[in-house]
């Protein structure tokens, strides 16, 4: 039975990582309002239960799971268990970690670089591979939450821009293989979303998007079968400028950006 046939017989089962807050919670609530069944993953049990409660209040059936995505092997086993219980139709790999080099530090913290590599790149890539393997015989959709940081060499956030660039390339490469076989992969590259992650940053957050609006844009783009969305649109323009600008200009501009974060 393929994905289209399955969706005629039952509401989709949606798995969301990082559902305990921010964008993941908004994605969970958006799908709950559509009547979809949810499996919500997070690390903080209290926050995850609160989000699950708000989804149940919207009428959704919800299962929760505590998973630390710094452990890709445990995450892989968890995905296989959840898929065996109820085959996943839409897998949203949303969880992420950010970091900015401290102003008085010579480099980013190597432990933090490791964590960002695992949570932003290694584990979602492992999980998307596992999800694709399960979905290819039956259909399904995968959504990878990247960042516009992937488009730029951020000297103050090497681990964040590097891990998101890796994720972006992984997503589009996977999509080339799986899309013709009924499993499209959507790469999402957002600018600033008003969540705890961006609230930690000092200074302006230009073109800030509310999480509920971001969730709607993402769900619509996936339903329309898009490969990549960048929002809000000015970040598209910045991406093109970055691609066309000569190295010295890019280095001068990016070297001048000053960003700090609260703990
Ligand atoms: N906010 C922005 O401006 C922005 C911009 C571009 C891209 N993004 C991307 O959007 C996604 C969602 O971010 P957000 O803004 O919603 O951030 P957030 O509010 O900080 O939420 C991050 C989520 O990821 C989970 N997470 C982090 N580390 C984890 C780990 N080791 N194991 C399991 N779960 C973990 C958190 O779980 P717990 O809370 O339970 O620990 C939380 O649910 C991320 O991929 C982020 O990179 C955000």
Compile the SSE list and pairings.
Elements: H1 3-9, E1 13-16, H2 22-33, E2 37-42, H3 45-57, E3 62-66, H4 72-85, E4 90-93, H5 110-135, E5 141-145, H6 158-178, E6 185-190, H7 196-199, H8 211-223, E7 228-231, H9 234-244, H10 247-256
Parallel strand pairs: 1-2, 1-4, 2-3, 4-5, 5-6, 6-7
Helix pairs in contact: 2-3, 2-8, 4-5, 5-6
NADP nicotinamide-adenine-dinucleotide phosphate is lined by residues 18, 20-24, 42-44, 47, 67-70, 94-98, 119, 145, 147, 190, 192-193, 195-198.
Protein architecture, described:
With 263 residues, this protein is an alpha/beta fold. It has a single domain (10-256), classed as Rossmann fold, CATH 3.40.50.720. 50% of the residues lie in helices and 13% in strands. Strands 3-2-1-4-5-6-7 form a 7-stranded parallel β-sheet, sandwiched between helices. Strand 1 (13-16), helix 2 (22-33) and strand 2 form a beta-alpha-beta unit. Helix 2 packs parallel to helix 3 (45-57). The chain starts with a helix and ends in a 7-residue tail after the last helix. The site of NADP nicotinamide-adenine-dinucleotide phosphate has 29 residues, from helix 2 and helix 7.
């Amino acid at each position: 039975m393929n994905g289209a046939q399955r969706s005629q017989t039952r509401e989709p089962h949606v798995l969301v990582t990082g559902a305990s807050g921010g964008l993941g919670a908004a994605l969970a609530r958006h799908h709950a309002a559509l009547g979809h069944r949810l499996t919500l993953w997070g690390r903080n049990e209290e926050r995850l239960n609160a989000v699950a409660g708000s989804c149940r209040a919207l009428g959704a059936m919800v299962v929760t799971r505590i998973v630390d995505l710094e452990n890709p092997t445990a995450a892989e086993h968890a995905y296989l268990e959840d898929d065996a219980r109820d085959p996943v139709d839409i897998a949203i790999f949303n969880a992420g970690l950010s970091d900015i080099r401290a102003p008085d530090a010579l480099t980013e913290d190597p432990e933090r670089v490791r964590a960002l590599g695992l949570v932003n790149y290694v584990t979602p890539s492992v999980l998307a591979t596992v999800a694709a393997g399960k979905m290819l015989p039956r259909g399904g959709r995968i959504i990878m939450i990247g960042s516009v940081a992937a488009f730029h060499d951020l000297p103050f956030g090497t681990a964040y821009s590097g891990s998101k660039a890796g994720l972006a390339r992984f997503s589009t490469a996977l999509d080339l293989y799986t899309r013709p076989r009924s499993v499209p992969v959507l790469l999402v590259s957002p600018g600033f979303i008003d969540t705890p992650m961006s609230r930690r940053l000092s200074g302006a957050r230009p073109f800030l998007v509310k999480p509920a609006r971001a969730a709607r844009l993402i769900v619509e783009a996936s339903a329309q079968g898009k490969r990549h969305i960048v929002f809000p649109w000015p970040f598209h323009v910045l991406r093109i400028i970055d691609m066309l600008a000569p190295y010295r200009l890019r280095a001068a501009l990016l070297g001048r950006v000053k960003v700090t974060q609260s703990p």
